[in-house]
Amino acid sequence: MLRIAVPNKGTLSETAVQMLHEAGYATRRDSKELIVTDARNDVEFFYLRPRDIATYVGSGALDIGVTGRDLLLDSHSPALEVEALDFGGSTFRFAGPAGRFSSLDDLNGVRVATSYDTLVGDFLERNGVTAELVRLDGAVESAVRLGVADAVADVVSTGTTLRNQGLEIFGPVILESTGVLIAAREGIAGFETFQRRLQGVMVARRYVLIDYDLPAELLEKATAVTPGLESPTVSPLADTGWLAVRAMVPRKDMNNVMDELYEIGARAILVSPIHAARI
Ligand SMILES: Nc1ncnc2c1ncn2[C@@H]1O[C@H](COP(=O)(O)OP(=O)(O)OP(=O)(O)O)[C@@H](O)[C@H]1O
Ligand SMILES: O=P(O)(O)OC[C@H]1O[C@H](OP(=O)(O)OP(=O)(O)O)[C@H](O)[C@@H]1O
Ligand SMILES: [Mg+2]
């Protein structure tokens, strides 16, 4: 039975669990449930703190996990990052009081608060900077105002939390992070099926199906606009001068694609969602 670690709290949890649900797996019914056995799919899910997941997977106690790249690197776990997922994207940055710092070198000799002291320590060391790291559990943006640090290093998404504390980003990007699928090792039995199911959910979210009718002589032009994954499906209409065309297009592009197809001469252009996919 495949043993999978899932975040039980925090930013990654809800989206990760929703993704498992869409991929056809059993999920917990209430937030106190820590283990869910999905016998039909031969998988067992362990709901764990996001920060601990890389440790469980890296030790081999669990086979696979969903966590953040920043948490994986901060843990120094030997777990392998196998795939970037479509959620939990953030940037890891230094920030300080407006105008106080301008470059990484300005951090020499100052106190930097962070919940990711290993990640930040490694970065500073690689760059030859010596700072005093102040390890905090969270809400590190308050550390400067409260006087326990001179600067912070933390996850930035919209930047609202920093702004509200009068802090400004400076220096290089420490890390571009995202939700990731991690594995204890290569070649775990059942891993590929699990991975394909998650990929299927991501594809179903990212793409839509487009159908349209087209005068036959315009097929080449229309194929250039909707090349599909392999190539579009083309079927005859009862009127021999016309074709019906179907292809996948990125959801974010669908309105531009519809406009372009209409201008070329396509009609009856319809878009529908994809509920599930195996690519
Ligand atoms: N605002 C955000 N937007 C996107 N990803 C985020 C955000 N905040 C955190 N993350 C990502 O989520 C992961 C875990 O962070 P999160 O803060 O949710 O966990 P936690 O700190 O353990 O939980 P909690 O904050 O509830 O104590 C990290 O990979 C981080 O990069
Ligand atoms: O750039 P923003 O959109 O403002 O988001 C970034 C904030 O979100 C996370 O905090 P979280 O709510 O997880 O609290 P924590 O710091 O206690 O973990 C992160 O640690 C930042 O503080
Ligand atoms: Mg947090």
From TrEMBL:
<keyword id="KW-0479">Metal-binding</keyword>
<keyword id="KW-0368">Histidine biosynthesis</keyword>
<keyword id="KW-0328">Glycosyltransferase</keyword>
<keyword id="KW-0067">ATP-binding</keyword>
<dbReference type="GO" id="GO:0000105">
    <property type="term" value="P:L-histidine biosynthetic process"/>
</dbReference>
<dbReference type="Pfam" id="PF01634">
    <property type="entry name" value="HisG"/>
</dbReference>
<comment type="pathway">
    <text>Amino-acid biosynthesis; L-histidine biosynthesis; L-histidine from 5-phospho-alpha-D-ribose 1-diphosphate: step 1/9.</text>
</comment>
<keyword id="KW-0028">Amino-acid biosynthesis</keyword>
<dbReference type="Pfam" id="PF08029">
    <property type="entry name" value="HisG_C"/>
</dbReference>
<dbReference type="InterPro" id="IPR011322">
    <property type="entry name" value="N-reg_PII-like_a/b"/>
</dbReference>
<dbReference type="InterPro" id="IPR013115">
    <property type="entry name" value="HisG_C"/>
</dbReference>
<dbReference type="GO" id="GO:0005737">
    <property type="term" value="C:cytoplasm"/>
</dbReference>
<dbReference type="InterPro" id="IPR020621">
    <property type="entry name" value="ATP-PRT_HisG_long"/>
</dbReference>
<keyword id="KW-0963">Cytoplasm</keyword>
<keyword id="KW-0460">Magnesium</keyword>
<dbReference type="GO" id="GO:0003879">
    <property type="term" value="F:ATP phosphoribosyltransferase activity"/>
</dbReference>
<dbReference type="InterPro" id="IPR001348">
    <property type="entry name" value="ATP_PRibTrfase_HisG"/>
</dbReference>
<keyword id="KW-0547">Nucleotide-binding</keyword>
<feature type="domain" description="Histidine biosynthesis HisG C-terminal">
    <location>
        <begin position="204"/>
        <end position="275"/>
    </location>
</feature>
<dbReference type="InterPro" id="IPR015867">
    <property type="entry name" value="N-reg_PII/ATP_PRibTrfase_C"/>
</dbReference>
<feature type="domain" description="ATP phosphoribosyltransferase catalytic">
    <location>
        <begin position="49"/>
        <end position="188"/>
    </location>
</feature>
<dbReference type="InterPro" id="IPR013820">
    <property type="entry name" value="ATP_PRibTrfase_cat"/>
</dbReference>
<dbReference type="GO" id="GO:0000287">
    <property type="term" value="F:magnesium ion binding"/>
</dbReference>
<dbReference type="GO" id="GO:0005524">
    <property type="term" value="F:ATP binding"/>
</dbReference>
<protein>
    <recommendedName>
        <fullName>ATP phosphoribosyltransferase</fullName>
        <ecNumber>2.4.2.17</ecNumber>
    </recommendedName>
</protein>
<comment type="similarity">
    <text>Belongs to the ATP phosphoribosyltransferase family. Long subfamily.</text>
</comment>
<comment type="function">
    <text>Catalyzes the condensation of ATP and 5-phosphoribose 1-diphosphate to form N'-(5'-phosphoribosyl)-ATP (PR-ATP). Has a crucial role in the pathway because the rate of histidine biosynthesis seems to be controlled primarily by regulation of HisG enzymatic activity.</text>
</comment>
<keyword id="KW-0808">Transferase</keyword>
<dbReference type="InterPro" id="IPR018198">
    <property type="entry name" value="ATP_PRibTrfase_CS"/>
</dbReference>
